[in-house]
């Protein structure tokens, strides 16, 4: 995928997004990275250099912050995000087995795997009493199993198609 931050116009647009943050906040590198991720869904190639310039720090400084936080992504997010809770309460009621089963389902269905990407575990969704818990996009799923996850993914795909 081509980076959305390549041309002079794209770089200037990004600077326009980041400059108010830099003026408003001390030590704004993380805030700038978060703003870029909110804008693009990930940190595209070229963003680190622009952030370094507007924050007046080195690219290595920005890269250090970028690589430290696993929530900052290097690649575009999947169309449908599926995140399974991996914290203790959900593990106690089958969270690990669900993660393994979901991995097998995705391995057997390339279209599903392409749409949902890799499960990024989340640690407690505040829904411990209804574990195993999951998030499909922003929808919280309690008592999750493979079928409820598939249904939620289908509903999210349908909602995305309807929105087009
Ligand atoms: S441990 Fe999974 S929702 Fe709290």
Q: Would you kindly provide a written description of the structure presented here, covering whatever features stand out?
A:
The chain has helices at residues 8-24, 29-40, 47-55, 59-68, 88-92, 95-108, 110-116, 146-163; strands at residues 82-84, 134-136, 139-141. With 164 residues, it is mainly alpha-helical. It folds into 2 domains: 8-68; 82-163, Glutaredoxin (3-Layer(aba) Sandwich), CATH 3.40.30.10. A 3-stranded antiparallel sheet has the order 1-2-3, covered by helices on one side. It starts with 7 loop residues before the first helix and ends with a helix. FE2/S2 (inorganic) cluster binds at residues 85, 87-90, 124-125, 127-128, 131, 133.
Ions, cofactors and other bound molecules = FE2/S2 (inorganic) cluster
What does the radius of gyration come to?
A: 19 Å
The general outline is: elongated
Sketch the topology as an H/E string, one letter per element: HHHHEHHHEEH
Name of the CATH first level of the largest domain: Alpha Beta
Number of strands: 3
Task: List the keywords.
164 residues; mainly alpha; Glutaredoxin; 2 domains; 3-stranded antiparallel β-sheet; 8 helices; 3 strands; 5% strand; elongated; binds FE2/S2 (inorganic) cluster
Give the topology, please.
Layout lengths: L7 H17 L4 H12 L6 H9 L3 H10 L13 E3 L3 H5 L2 H14 L1 H7 L17 E3 L2 E3 L4 H18 L1
Antiparallel strand pairs: 1-2, 2-3
Helix pairs in contact: 1-2, 1-3, 2-3, 3-4, 6-7
The chain binds FE2/S2 (inorganic) cluster.
The site of FE2/S2 (inorganic) cluster (FES) has 11 residues, from helix 5.
């Amino acid at each position: 995928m081509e980076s959305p931050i390549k041309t002079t116009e794209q770089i200037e647009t990004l600077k326009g997004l980041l400059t108010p943050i830099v003026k408003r906040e001390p030590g704004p590198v993380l805030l700038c990275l978060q703003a870029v991720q909110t804008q693009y869904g990930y940190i595209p190639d070229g963003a680190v250099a622009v952030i370094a310039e507007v924050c007046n720090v080195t690219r290595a400084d920005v890269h250090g912050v970028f690589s430290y936080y696993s929530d900052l992504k290097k690649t575009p997010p999947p169309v449908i995000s599926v995140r399974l809770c991996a914290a203790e309460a959900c593990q106690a009621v089958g969270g690990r087995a669900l993660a393994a089963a979901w991995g097998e389902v995705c391995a057997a269905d390339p279209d599903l795997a392409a749409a949902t990407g890799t499960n990024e575990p989340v640690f407690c969704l505040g829904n411990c009493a209804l574990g195993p818990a999951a998030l499909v996009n922003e929808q919280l799923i309690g008592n999750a199993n493979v079928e409820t996850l598939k249904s939620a993914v289908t509903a999210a795909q349908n909602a995305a198609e309807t929105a087009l």
